[in-house]
Amino acid sequence: MSKPLKDKAKEEMQDWQVMFAEWANEAPEGPLKRFYQAGMIAPETALRDTPLLALDLETTGLDPSKDEIISLGLIPLNHQIIRCQGAQYWMAKPERSLNAESVTIHEITHSELAEAPPLHAILDDILVALTHQVVVVHCVAIERQFLLEAAMKVYGYPLYFPVIDTMDIERQVTFKPWWKRFGRQPSLRLDACRQRYKLPRYKAHHALTDALSSAELLQAQIAHHMDPNAAISRYWV
Amino acid sequence: MDVELTEILEALCQHAPFNEIADDPQLNDMTKEIEIQYVRAGEWVIAPSALNNTLFFIRSGAIEVLSKENKLIRRMNEGELFGYFSLLRGGKSSQSMRTIEDSLLYRIPARWFLKLYEENDAFSDFFQLAREVRLRVAMDSQSSDVSLMTCPVVSLLRRPPISADISSDILTSAQIMAEHRVSSLLITENDELIGIVTDRDLRTRAVAKGLAYDTSVADIMTRDPIVMDSGDYASEAVLKMMERNVHHIPIVKNGRPIGVVSTGDIIQKESHGSVYLISDIYKQTSIEGLKSISRKMTHTFTHLVVADANTQMIGNAMSHIGTAFVKRLLQLAEEKFGPPPVPYCFIALGSQAREEQTIKTDQDNALILSDKYDKQLHGEYFEALTDWVCRHLDDCGYDLCSGDIMASNPRWRQPLSVWKDNFSEWIQKPKAEALLRLSIFFDLRGIYGDKTLAKQLNQHIRQEAKQHSGFLTFMARNANQRKPPLGFFRQFVLDGEGKQSRTFNLKERGIAPIIDIVRVHALACGSDKLNTLERIEDIDAAGLLPDGRAKDLALALEMIGMVRIRHQKEQIEAGEEPNNHVNPENLSSFEKRHLRDAFHIVSRQQEFIKFRYAGKRS
Questions:
Q1: Which tens digits make up the pLDDT trace of A23-43?
Q2: Would you call B35 and A84 a contact, using CB atoms and an 8 Å cutoff?
Q3: Are B158 and B209 members of one domain?
Q4: What's the CA gap between B479 and B514, in Å, rounded?
Q5: Edge-to-edge strand order for the sheet containing B256-262?
Q6: How many CB atoms lie within 10 A of CB B385?
Q7: In this structure, what CATH number is given to the domain that contains residue A72?
Q8: Between chains, do A209 and B6 touch, taking CB under 8 Å as contact?
Q9: Domain encompassing residue B102
Q10: Residues of chain B found within 8 Å of residue A223, distances taken between Cβ atoms
């Protein structure tokens, strides 16, 4: 676990500041345009100066093209501290009805959701919360894709933002080339990663708890593997 | 939408003091202002002399607390709080905190701590008590001289010893004493202490007898005076003075005298009732007199508890009082039945032998007779003597032993050679059942008569035990018989049925298991100590336990012992018979938490000896 993270090759480095500026021009008038217009921090900003926001979604299934977001939790942090004060949580009523299976996973019931507003009514607020933040998630593929699909549906234009992926960080620090491997690669599930850092076990599948979970995991990863003085471009994807 | 950080709130409410105020709606608002911090092992959370403005809650991991002098004060684990001490003092921290494991900490803003402290009694009570206990720890670690019971004798010394060579005459000796304004003079030969001369000696042995000024000081000095070690407690010096009727005791360190403690020093230091109680015991000439003193014992006991004596000191004082009763009764018995026809040694067993007696104890004793003993000739004398003594000990509050382990039982009144054979039999052919009853005999102290008999027997026991490892296996197994009351879910498990069904027995399930564990190790390393804490020191020195574990045992013993003593004091004050049955509902959450930790230590150490002395499996 003591392996330092590798520097990214130059060509891999993304400049979200430049991309946000481009999208700010292209995006249709409205909340999403304002989101991009607010801009993004420069890639050379140090990790210690980066505003971070841990995020987790619960959905009706795993397919971003078909399934829908039913809850979303956010919790702000920096490289040293998680601030409960800025925590936010939304539930969203899906357009299609919930299937029984996902209900049991999330412990969110039909009646709770029936009273929640639809996603399009809260997406504006979510965009305000995400403004100018680097988002922390465990497994970038799911969260970013679901929000992208949602924005397409609501605003007709994609939502995209820089992410620090705790799963990807864990993959890099636990990676061993095949000739050094013995048996299986270590698990990259959130709970398994947390246990490697002696973090407490939480009940999974509540968006806010899971956001807190990945926020704490990032704290541990920063303490063990990451350099707070390094540029954020080294870590974001 | 209303945000609820259930995970955080639930974690807090599993632990004191939050569990007691879990229904306070403010707690949810408080959690919203918590900050979470992950700290790697070995880093400062509150650095030395740093200001602190946060109440810390250990969500996972462990912290150590260090004093200003960088000495380890204690360790804290999951669910414990720290930093409040400095919050109550405007942020200044006298202690520093460092992680010893990777830790996840909740930082609760000072504002919330002070608000709850102000508004909620259950909340502030928790910190009040924690503060008291911590003060006690801080006091102990400084060996402060608040009372005779807790200060080492060395703290009474006011100057280096004044001494004269053995070749001096009486006049020179008196002149030295006058010059230095001291009431005693150490007499040395080749720089070694061989005697002491006091004001009283000059008066009664020189002047009153009309000795010439040039008489050698050797003629009036007391040879080989009683000395004490610099590490002994001041109270022991007092006890010794009372017992031996001396007013000066030289204190030695590594064999060299470093000063003299006089009764004057002691009186200046203010003293407690127990020492006077002992001198009273020796003045009594009748059973009635002794009985009336025994009725004051509860008072002495509560006095000691109130005076903040630790369990070691209280055990020591109560044992010395118990021993004084035995000795005085034997002196009276010898007046009544005549001098003993052959030498004997009256021995204390169990807690009295370990000097760990508490207020309510049965008598456990026995008699070692010289091998010159002839039953035909001497049997009657010792039967009468021991019957009389045990019966009157009962009158003085030391109940007859329910297991009949008393000197009045002919089975436990034997010549030395028979005792040795008994022990050889027990050790060489151990039987688990029998040893369970006999373990008390492995804490054996001669308290009256020819103490060399007890010494010889103890030596015999140590030699035999060391040579027969199978015996230790049995003792280790027996030490695992009584389990601390820790349930599967880290809850307390309660003992028994009926009236005491809501309680558990602190002695049986906490103190006795520790004593048993320590006895096994002590026998294994051939320690000649009897007191459990002294045994722990020997065990630690012998390296039988991993680093820090010996200290853990001592702490667990002190913690459980303290709860027991406070419980007994409360019972006495409520006019009840003191016992060892504690109702967990009457414990503060602080006591519960620490008891639970202590029981965990006991439990782990029981596991450890099982393997350490596993023996050969058949």
A1: 999 999 999 999 999 999 999
A2: yes
A3: yes
A4: 8
A5: B228-229, B248-253, B256-262
A6: 24
A7: 3.30.420.10
A8: yes
A9: 3-140
A10: 38-40, 102
